Amino acid sequence: MHIVNDFPRDVQEEEGWITLADGCRLGIRIWRPVDAESDPVPAILEYLPYRKRDLTAMRDAQTHAYWAGHGYAGVRVDIRGSGESDGVLTDEYLQQELDDGVEILHWLGQQSWCTGDVGMIGISWGGFNGLQIAALQPPELKAVITLCSTDDRYADDVHHMGGCLLGDNLSWASTMFDGNTCPPDPLLVGERWRDMWLERLEHSGLWLATWLQHQRRDDYWKHGSVCEDFSRIRCPVYAISGWADGYCNAVFRLLAGLDVPRKGLVGPWAHMYPYHGVPGPAIGFLQESLRWWDYWLKGKETGIMDEPMLRVWMQESVPPSARYEVRPGRWVAEPSWPSPRIESKHFRFTSGHDLLPAPQSPTACVSGDDVPLSVRSPLSVGLYAGKWCSYNAPPDLPHDQRDEDGGSLIFQTARLEQDIEICGQPVVELEIEADQPVAMVALRLSDIADDDKATRISYGLLNLTHRDSDEFPQPLEPGKRYHVRVPLKHIAHNFPVGNAIRLSLSTSYWPLAWPSPVPVKLTVHPVGCRLILPCREPQPREEEALPQFSPPEAAPPLAVTVIQPSQEAWRVIRDLANDQTTLEVINDQGTFRLDDIELELSARVVERYTYAYGNYDSLSGWTEWERTFRRGGWEVRSVTRTLMTSNAASFRLRATMDAFEGDSRVFSKSWDEEIPRDLV
Known about the structure:
- With 680 residues, the chain is α+β, with helices and mostly antiparallel strands.
- The chain has 3 domains: 2-163 and 217-334, Alpha/Beta hydrolase fold, catalytic domain (Rossmann fold, 3-Layer(aba) Sandwich), CATH 3.40.50.1820; 342-538, Jelly Rolls (Sandwich), CATH 2.60.120.260; 560-595 and 598-676.
- Strand 20 (440-448) and strand 21 form a beta hairpin.
- The longest helix is centred in the N-terminal third of the chain and has 16 residues, at 95-110.
- Residues 290-555 form the Xaa-Pro dipeptidyl-peptidase C-terminal domain.
């Protein structure tokens, strides 16, 4: 990455508070040109709970200072109850958070150094609330860049997929469980830091219990889901994600659903800003963002809106790996989305496990193809699935799918005689029956190389009780045939000549998703089943004419001293003597010091997902976070642990939170809750 030291405008940085109408003070950090009082600038707001003072300080310094050097005020505000902001944070995307955001925008628009025009940017949480606040139509908000976020909190977030409960629901809840134990910095808030900290420890709550009380798409999830009414968003939106990220589907829905000026960009990246993009290639995202901001906040003609609406990285075939540094491919574009250039190509299932080309309209049964096939997958299917949302640290992408396919039904094409290039959302139609009233199906689309290695390209899940509605699920009637449609994740991929396309079907996908209450046998009737691929023809002349993204660049990094390096691990542990299997994920973030504020930070998380062979009541997910803040003689440490188990009737949560000041434990709290399963 190229570090820029010489900007068009000199930059100053300041840290303080915004006092809201109800008296609550929110911590704020601002980077802006030193001459902004005489030559005002638009503001770019990033509004997060992730602590501007320390946990995002390194990233913020390289992004917000960059924008400031190019004539903007880069603004970071900690959400109420996080960082140095007053209050207690008790959940995601509360109406209070959104109302505060509107008030922040108004405050920014009134500052003497601001032109009155504001943009919002954010990745993940900040991408969510940028869209949510845009739907409230504050007059100061002129444009949004939303990265790795969603328009639908139920269908496409860490909590659920296809009505199935995701393992990331536990993982993410544990991350915020830890985050809510972090103290404000005494250097900023003074002696009141301890009272603020203890209040957060006591009242932030166990978010996982709240989320598990909403297992269907009710009003809880509709709140903050801008897909409920896309017309509420009246400002331009640039939606960005990566194929390894959990949120790429939202880019395509936003392009299709919004009626404002909009653009979409999907690279090969995991859940991160594209100028740090891994898997690579990373791009000059900050330069790209300036083209957007200059056009919408300054009225400069940058050409960005003359380019195609959607650009995506067309991935090439690669061997399976849990981590890619670079994903080979090329940039392609579509002038609109949905694109009239995407053509559906259908493949029908056969009882011989083939995928055969088929016309789009249903055809009569081919002789011998209506012999039913059944599967009852072992719980081991899913151990090599990676995470729903990849952070690429520790290595969390899917491994060779042959390890999964032994417990699955597979259907495969012949070796391809010509390339097949897809861009969009594959869909699978199934004629299926189950022997239990609650069942799930997991579908995986893989690229099979000439050496038979299987690289997962896309996948989808469906809780079959949600076959008609996520809001009003209905139990299955055992033995009854149902026709269901399962959308997979959007993807752009080229299947090359000589490779084959495989679709794998399983009845579990643990621990990416929590399995059904009891083992299930699914019976598939091939005559009613299809794989539908969104195919596109390459456009070589058009692709050659696309403007190239600049190489990554950023403002100078903060001075940081590494005291203990990070360590990562992703292990599958098979105890054959006891028929017990554990997936262990370790992310030790090490210890480092932010030199400018002389603050040492360390954090370590361990996750373990365990089952005993064939025993659905043995499933457990366990997480432990330990985090330390240290400066001189001041030291604060927290330890949070969460254990989630289940039986056929309910989920059980047991959690503890312990906090230490120096060697003394100053807070301890525990939870033990049982929550009935709701057709999950």
